[in-house]
TrEMBL record:
Name listed for the protein in its UniProt record: UPF0056 membrane protein
A Pfam short name: MarC
TM annotation in the entry: 6-28, 40-60, 72-90, 111-134, 146-172, 179-197
InterPro entries: Multi_antbiot-R_MarC
GO terms under cellular component: plasma membrane
Record keywords: Cell membrane, Membrane, Transmembrane, Transmembrane helix
Subcellular location: Cell membrane
Keyword Endoplasmic reticulum belongs to the record: no
Similarity field: Belongs to the UPF0056 (MarC) family.
Record membrane topology: Multi-pass membrane protein
Amino acid sequence: MEQLFLSAFITLFVVIDPPGCAPIYAGLTKGATTAERRIMAIRASIIAFVILLVFALFGQDLLSALHIELDSFRIAGGLMLFWIAWEMVFEKRTQRREERAERAAREHVEDVSVFPMAMPMLAGPGAIAAIMLLMNEAVGLEQSLVVMGALVSVLLITMIALIAAGPLIKLLGERVEAVITRLLGVLLAALAAQYVIDGLRGSFGV
């Protein structure tokens, strides 16, 4: 059981990538207060767990019933992430926040907990495929619970990483934060492109 837990934990940790998601989350929540960042991080982790739990238990049946292939998730998720990356690089999100501040006494921070953090960043095509594969290989209820335990552990680490990333980036100052946000936008665009490429390869058997 320990070997199964370790294998599942490593697989999900690499796929979900908490260290990689944390700085992207910090860039997406630029302008939010510490409390707002914390709430969105907790909400994103919980929603991601629910999504992955559904696919772990009913993934194959759900996709088959809807006639949807996993590669379609990769392409759609990649396109959505690319749009977010474009806004990060060209600071369109900052412009929207400034416009909102002019119309309201208090700035309304955009909630990124559902999209793009929970889906497709945390519970993306890779994580969905990984949890479905791990559950298919698990034999019996006990092994299935071990896999679920590994998933919960990874998402708890992810939640802590997201909460800690915001204050750390904030301490660096606005100029450094702007540079980091644009750099992360470029990296996010590359990740989005990879999602699309993987989806196209899977769809057309390239």
